[in-house]
Design goal:
alpha/beta, RNA-binding, globular, Gyrase A, domain 2
RNA sequence: GCCCUCUUAGCUCAGGGGAUAGAGCGUCUGCCUCCGGAGCAGAAGGCCGUAGGUUCGAAUCCUACAGAGGGCGCCA
């Protein structure tokens, strides 16, 4: 719809130039927007005000010259010049009614846009250390990353979801030592947990599993040997758990990328990816040595200070692995765009990572989204989310309590750069007031109408019913009620919302849209009788409206990763 | 100390150069002989943190200040 209006305005500008009413060196690209006040029309453009100076005439006069050429098109009901020089355009019922047919024809492809032009984008998110359960912030980032991936796919990108497993390093060692300590305690040895060891009950559970599977013989081995063995078992157990929880909320990754593979030499004996990543930076002249360490000159790309890649003791920093990781993403796997979602506590890390990506030869191709934390409350009291404290509330527990749909929707409803206060007690109490139910209810209500119209109250799939119930050639011109036209306008907006959400990496625009659409539907439903044997033509057309609304709700909910129930 | 983000209705938040600033919740008032009332209609509620600036126009952009959160290791 936007494209249609844009080309109408462009043509009108050209026509006004051709007939000499305006004089401009070049035709500006018209900016279109929806006026805040609906009485001003469906679309509005400010081209006249923007070009007034160049054209050497008052904006209102220029606007009138353009408006005269827009008027008359069958899709346009009226064109008016208003205020300081806005051109306000109102669509004809015909143009709005056509949306219903378009939705029913395109079905789940409705609202697709070609912003991505098939470019390959990777979204990396969650990437929790595999040393314990997910906290609630991870759940939020999972919802965000997954929904963003869905939105980008709908916007014409080829998308992959990736989870980076930090399965190398100090945290893993502490984790293994913690499990080993619990194992020894189970066997009656007086062993202390490591200083900063993990204290969650799950550590005991893993230790118990190891004990029952492998018996007590590991108590007699060397501690280093024991810990190395336990590390592998415990790590796999946690990873399986993470996959399971994520899957339960509808998040499935295409790639689980192990940090270890960056450290290991290639099978053919060539250097590890970390070494190759550093070599790449060195090749380009951004690596130097100082005080026994190897440094990356990130200041050449705007970072505050240079960063260490190889410590004086010869080991690699986490950053070195990340350089190699991103080298792999761009060079080995050829992504055009990479989006990393990191926790708020990593935001100081962004400049050096972007610097590294630029130095590797891919400037501007990395975007980092800083996922803000979730402040969890239970009955008004703050619940700490540190992995070290024994009594954290895990994301899994939250999922069990409030359900995947409500959790996801709640997380996605806020913009990503805002911290979120989530009171578990409140979320449970007010679950009926949660806006996700409002949207899902609209969908279920529609399905109920369709079942009723088909006289098949037990039919499992209302969408299939609609297929047979409503002909392709149904006459939509009888749909002229204000509530109907308002609903059509909202249906027509989907592609704009998808594009805006994809551009801004902002799935929360879709929750807002979903609620607005549900409102438009409920208003329509209140005013317009759908099933009416006295008026078969109107009834048939309204069933098409209802079905189109159902389809768009299904699309939006799918983009959010929330279910679209047929009954509730 | 330096850097980043945030500050909009009683509460939780949208809006990120355009016309009279929006939604949900909460508070009041109405609407079920009829397709799902988990719904609809209406009312009340605002110096868009403060002060300057940029321009035809600022909640939106810039600067300073005040509050809130986060970040500043050869940690991960």
């Amino acid at each position: 719809m936007q494209d249609l209006i844009a080309s109408l305005v462009r043509d009108a500008l050209s026509a006004a130039l051709a007939d000499g009413r305006i004089d401009l060196a070049e035709v500006p690209e018209p900016e279109l927007e929806h006026p805040r006040d609906p009485s001003h029309g469906d679309w509005s453009t400010n081209v006249a005000m923007r070009s007034a100076r160049a054209a050497g005439m008052p904006p209102r006069q220029l606007a009138q010259a353009v408006a005269d050429h827009v008027a008359g098109h069958p899709d346009i009901a009226s064109v008016e010049v208003a205020g300081p020089g806005f051109i306000n355009i109102r669509l004809s019922p015909r143009a709005l009614q056509r949306v219903v047919a378009e939705v029913r024809e395109q079905r789940l492809d409705y609202g697709r846009v070609d912003l991505g032009c098939g470019r390959r984008v990777q979204v990396e998110f969650v990437s929790a250390n595999p040393v314990g359960p997910m906290h609630v912030g991870h759940g939020r980032w999972a919802a965000l990353g997954d929904s963003l991936a869905r939105v980008l796919a709908h916007a014409g990108y080829q998308v992959e979801r990736e989870f980076y497993i930090n399965d190398q390093g100090v945290q893993m060692d502490i984790f293994a030592a913690s499990v080993a300590a619990r194992y020894m305690q189970l066997l009656g040895y007086e062993v202390e947990l490591p200083e900063d060891g993990y204290r969650g009950a799950y550590i005991n559970e893993i230790a118990e599993e190891i004990l029952s599977a492998e018996g007590p013989s590991w108590a007699g081995r060397e501690p280093t040997e024991r810990e190395a063995h336990f590390k592998e078992i415990a790590y796999r157990a946690v990873l399986e758990h993470l996959k399971h929880v994520l899957h339960d909320m509808g998040v499935d990754f295409d790639v689980w990328f192990s940090e270890r593979t960056l450290h290991e030499p290639s099978p053919d004996g060539s250097p590890s990816e970390i070494e190759r990543g550093i070599a790449r930076l060195r090749e380009r002249g951004y690596v130097y040595e100082n005080e026994g360490a190897v440094w990356f000159r990130s200041t050449a790309f705007g970072d505050d200070k240079d960063r260490v890649l190889v410590k004086a003791d010869g080991t690699y920093t986490y950053f070195a692995a990340d350089v190699a990781y991103h080298w792999d993403k761009f060079h080995e796997r050829g992504f055009d765009l990479v989006i990393d979602i990191w926790g708020a506590d990593h935001h100081g890390y962004v400049p050096r990572m972007k610097a590294a990506v630029a130095a590797l030869g891919y400037p501007g191709q990395l975007d980092v989204i800083i996922g803000q934390l979730v402040n969890l409350f239970r009955n008004g009291e703050v619940v700490r989310m540190s992995k070290r404290t024994g009594e954290m509330v895990t994301f899994e527990e939250l999922l069990d309590e409030v359900g995947a749909d409500a959790a996801r929707y709640f997380f996605l409803r806020r913009s990503t750069d805002q911290p979120l206060d989530f009171d578990i007690g409140l979320a449970k109490e007010q679950s009926a007031d949660n806006p996700v139910y409002y949207v899902q209810y609209a969908h279920a209500r529609i399905c109920s109408i369709l079942r009723k119209a088909a006289a098949q109250p037990d039919a499992p799939d209302a969408g299939a019913l609609a297929e047979t119930l409503i002909g392709k050639d149904v006459d939509l011109s009888v749909l002229t009620d204000d509530a109907e036209l308002a609903l059509f306008r909202k249906l027509a907006e989907l592609s704009e919302v998808v594009e805006a959400a994809a551009r801004a990496y902002a799935p929360h625009k879709l929750t807002r849209y979903a609620e607005e659409l549900a409102t438009c539907f409920h208003q329509f439903y209140t005013v317009c009788r759908v099933i009416d044997p006295e008026a078969p033509a109107l009834s048939a057309a309204r069933l098409a409206v209802v079905d189109a609304t159902r389809i768009v709700l299904e699309v939006v909910l799918a983009l959010l990763g929330v279910s679209a129930p047929q009954r509730m």
